Protein: 8-amino-7-oxononanoate synthase
Amino acid sequence: DTARVPERPRKAEVSGPRPQGLKELEGFRQLQMLEQAGAAIGLGSPYFRLHEGHAQSRSQIAGAEVLNFGSYDYLGLNADPRPRQAAMSALERYGVSASGSRMVSGTRPVHLALEEALARHYHCEAALSFVSGHATNVSLIPTLMEERDLVLSDAFVHNSVSTGMALSAAARRSFPHNDMDALERILENHRPLHRHVLIVVEGLYSMDGDLPDLPRLLALRDRYDAWLMVDEAHALGPVGASGRGVFEHFGIDPAEVDIWMGTLSKTLASTGGYVAGSKDLIRYLKARAPGHVFSVALPPCLAASAAEALRLLAREPGRAAQLQTLGAHFLEKARDLGLDCGAAVGSGVLPVMIGDSALATKLSERLLAAGVNVAPVTFPGVPMGSARLRFFLSSDHRPEDIDRALEATRDCLDQLEAEGFTRLLGAA
Ligand code: PMP
Structure:
């Protein structure tokens, strides 16, 4: 019987480091294969680069100062002294850790202040913070969606959403990226079969830097009696004239959306996640979402810095305007150099499409040597053949930084072509 699991060696025969059997894992084998293929053509890893100091629009890597396009400090608030000062005051007052879940002993006035500010931002009744953005989605979706329900997500949603969907007892489906007709067809066919339907999209897509069609999504939500959830991780700060998010871009009252989710780790210069919505939704999550009930509260100092960053976002709209000017400049410069930014709208996330994963990796290595830090996104992070360099812009970048980075990208690509690297890939 060939389908039988092969017998494993008995304990006494097993040697080598524990745990045994990792090589039997599909993911482990894929990782090894990618590493071996990379090594065969002289590629090092472009990830886990050590930033030796404060990573801002410039950073220090291996002793050298580089232009940094790898950090998502969209509005430069991680470089601003005020959120840091707020964190330090809270640190002095409340200590480093909350030393307990919110339910037990972890709640401090700074958590409540942050949540009130988030609820005000989204014109919602209430909001709730979590200790991690990733854990927010992983915890929220299975808590909300039960067996008789259906979750529909855009094909490009973040791993935290797809993991949350996989852990939910609800049925799940994804629709092609931003394809509202395809979404409508699914709703037409499947809505009658389920009790609740949740549609999940992102406010600014983290790999492609494009936006969802929020007005159409709201219309579909209404027509098919569904719930709409928007993950604003990358949209808060970069999107909307003053950076308030995707609702501002479309001129929509945020109270129209059922569930806002976001992270504190990007524009808000902190760590953690949040959900904003109705009083009942938040009351339910506070009591039932495992990532809230069974996990420690956000450290008070990080709640304080996020609240201060959110205050600055509202008070200093020039930061978002500056970021958008830089984004438009990036698109124009890339076009002049013959570089392809796909569907990006020219906000904080700007991909430069490369295609082959090995080429994108090699290019990132060359760019680092030329003084530019930008990470490639390669398979399996994006589908095979759609690898890219992903530039995160900050309002602290200067137009000259963008020019230098894109000119270096063009030069390094041309060099690799001249050296026959692309032919090497074709032969591999
Ligand atoms: N949602 C999206 C769309 C993200 O891109 C990310 C992280 N990049 C998360 C959620 C998770 O957020 P965090 O990194 O703050 O845990």
